[in-house]
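Could someone model sodium ion with this protein?
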Amino acid sequence: MSLRCPIVCVLGHVDHGKTTLLDKIRKTRVSQREAGGITQHIGASEIPIDVIKKVAKDLLGMLKADLKIPGLLVIDTPGHEAFTSLRKRGGALADIAILVVDINEGFKPQTIESINILKQNKTPFVVAANKLDLVPGWNSKDVPFVLNFNEKVQHPNALTEFEIRLYNNIIKPLNELGFDADLFTRVEDLTRTVCVIPVSAKTGEGIPDLLLMIAGLAQKYLEDNLKLDVKGPAKGTVLEVKEERGLGKTIDAIIYDGIARRGDYIVLGNPDGVVVSRVKALLKPKPLDEMRDPRDKFKPVNMVTAAAGVKISAPDLDRVIAGSPFRIVPKDKIEEAKKEVMAEVEELSIETDEEGIIIKGDTMGSLEALAKELKKRGVKIRKAEVGDISKKDIIEAHTYSKINPLYGVILAFNSKILPDAKEELERYSNVKIIQGNVIYKIVEDYEEWIKKMEEALK
Ligand code: GTP
Ligand code: MG
Ligand code: NA
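Reply:
Sure, complex below.
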């Protein structure tokens, strides 16, 4: 029997420290390289069980059962308010979750939104009460929390301050949302009470406690729900479509169930139909590497067992977009798989208006986020598409600017202008392109452009 690797989703309000926490565990620096300091895609990385056992070696006695899972597949999500759909997608994949809350700031809108997603999916979770190092007077060190939480190490005032913040900022709001919650060392019944684990992503304090709790709970959850055995075709979701030298278009994906085999068929769903191709190569990222921003090359393998992050190389992936669901199946299962992915695809499209502007994005998730921000401001969107800016987009924007000059704009998140589109653009000075790699910056630039245009049109 092959033990399944549980999927752990990290959720929480913007800047409460999700990516930094994972960086500390992985010894990576992903958060420091993010545009605008915010996460705008779903990330994935594998934490092998050996690493967890090593980090938590002083605490293994706390656990009643042996750890049998092969590790954890950790999904990082954006906390910025625009990315509801990515949080939902991450949340839907998760077996178990870590809700990251800044212990000093407490609950914020996306903390509550995250909890609602967890409630909807009935996903068990723990709370990582982060930024413990910023509690006034707290002496934070790279040690387990249980070894640092006593009068010998902490000043009485710091302990008081900690208890106040823990209660007011974390436990009380959880109670108000209907959850019983307590500091994990005080929890007796793990099935009834939400464990709060104080951590500092900056110093590393509490990370052993967090990893051990989450590994223990994930294993128990999988066992109780008989989800330990992996079998059947692979089910997955596309994170990103990438051009790779020597491989052409490839997809970075998460396989959340089943087994993928090289040579089998991949059936992907897009808003405009189903793509069937044959898996030429399966490539696995190195353990502890963030798939979005790996330090090392991916390794070719013949088989991938859920849950895992994987790069897939196959011909004809041109029309595939990020966010697409897929199956990897033997030939005789293709038809069945087609029906399944089509059913999932229906959620993928963005509602558009009769007239309005054009928006482009590098993934379905970022496109949805951009659309959401614009709709909130009453902006009409006529076309929302994943991909680079094409000649056709320019001509359309030009045509629509005739109806209304304010429609002569294309907003593009992480999308390039294709060469022939560039040529076209030179002919149409009335078409404006606003590009960027930070969603809210694009929206700001757009609003500024609108202002200028309205001035000019007066
Ligand atoms: P989004 O993905 O954009 O929602 O943010 P995030 O939750 O991933 O937070 P991120 O890791 O980007 O951290 C936000 C800021 O908080 C960064 O400047 C971090 O250095 C800082 N930070 C994170 N954790 C800690 C911590 O434990 N202590 C202190 N002092 N700062 C922290
Ligand atoms: Mg982040
Ligand atoms: Na951030």
